Amino acid sequence: MATYNDGPLGPFSGKLGPIVGTTWRGKNVLRSLPEKSQKPPSLAQELQRSKLKVSMGFLTPIRPLLKMTFRKNLKDKTGFDAAKSYFMRETLQSTETGWEMRYPKVLISTGDLRGLAHPAISVETGEILHLQWTDDSGQAMANATDKLLVVMYLPTLNQFEIFKDMAIRQDGSANITYPSYYISLEAHCWASFGSVNGSKYAVSTYLGAVEL
Fold first, then answer.
1. What is the value of pTM for the model shown?
2. Strand, coil or helix: 101
3. How far apart are CA 179 and CA 4, in angstroms?
4. H helices within the chain, ranges in order?
5. Domains (ranges, CATH) in the chain?
6. Cβ distance 200 to 106 under 8 Å?
7. Separation between Cα atoms, residue 155 and residue 193, nearest integer Å
8. pLDDT digits (tens, 9 = 90+) for 177-187
9. At a CB cut-off of 8 Å and minimum separation 6, what does 181 contact?
10. Over the stretch 111-170, which tens digit does the pLDDT of each residue have?
11. Distance CA 165, CA 131 (A)
């Protein structure tokens, strides 16, 4: 792989003979086409491929969010790459039937802000999810105006719901309305705080699984 500066016609993109031009982490890159292996994949390779497939299937729907909420210690990674690396390393457990997801290990954000203090979640009538926490504004890395972020995942539908700016830290509680067709389904929930300008986030908190 080699990087290059734009020529007189701009960056080269696509395949030309044995060379492929593309971008990688913001840089123009030239790669040679990989040779197709004639060897059958090993068990370890098959496991890694299936693990990657499960990871991408789960994370891709919230890719735009993760690009914003995983900004800590990125080095040369994107926020999504950092989230994917963490997910594959920490949240999947191999079982006889495949990969099992450890939901309490899942993170939807990382950073230096203070997370939710003593959170509690409950399902109320009227398709309302009630979330409350202790207002710890003024403590280190806890600003009264930090914005609440809540992410809900419904395994039955393989679907996410993202709720932004539903409250700020000093409010101490929030009511979140969800669609009526979610009633009776199980939902895994996470919450976090982000700064007003969206440049900083807290390490997210797993709120548990609830029946809507």
1. 0.79
2. strand
3. 50
4. 43-59, 63-69, 79-90
5. 43-105 (no CATH), 117-211 (2.60.40.10)
6. no
7. 24
8. 999 999 999 99
9. none
10. 999 999 999 999 999 999 999 999 999 999 999 999 999 999 999 999 999 999 999 999
11. 13
